[in-house]
């Protein structure tokens, strides 16, 4: 999975606010198949490999149900090592009886969609090999068509479900934004991502290192959609991993020239995008929760 390693910049963790920690923990362990890495009375850090955190769930005091039609999380996406793992995961999800929201073939990948008990969107997917992706200059061909479920199931090896495989990583994040032009300027001119495809004037997909996308951005919750209140369940922040302090500092300097809202506390650097989504700018080998 070279698209999620040096020298690329990519998402490696998400931190979610939930309204019931016990309920959410049951879902993420039994339905999604993550494991607890550490836990307190109000939060839990979840992992696939027992070492690297992927998702933190927190039940803060005063949290309220997820507010509709706001900016913030559309979905976070867990990338499985291969198609056989996706087949096993889909079989488990179907047998669990938990409602799915969709299953799609995006040409570059195959994906399953569902939501957690608070309505936080989740994609679980497997990439096709990059040799199978179709590029036209700097634009990649992606689509949304029906997943061939029967063909996918033919890849299942008959193994008993043991949870998500250890090689599972955070593949990408997809965000609702208020203004696509502002988002493009912030993420591309500021953070240094490249545009890989546009869906009309409503969605934009960006990456580093010619991945099909590390971040998706859309205005499907409405132009000018407000940011969620601080007490709303949903995305608290996500973490972007930079290959070095130098590359992170270059991004910080570009963002400062754009008058972005940057907060530095010791080695923790936090910034808000123009739609109010909080991002931690971390350096590879750090573990930021």
UniProtKB/TrEMBL annotation:
It holds the Pfam family Glyoxalase. PROSITE patterns: VOC. It comes from the Bacteria. Coiled coil: none annotated. Residues 10-127, 169-284 form the VOC domain. This is VOC family protein.
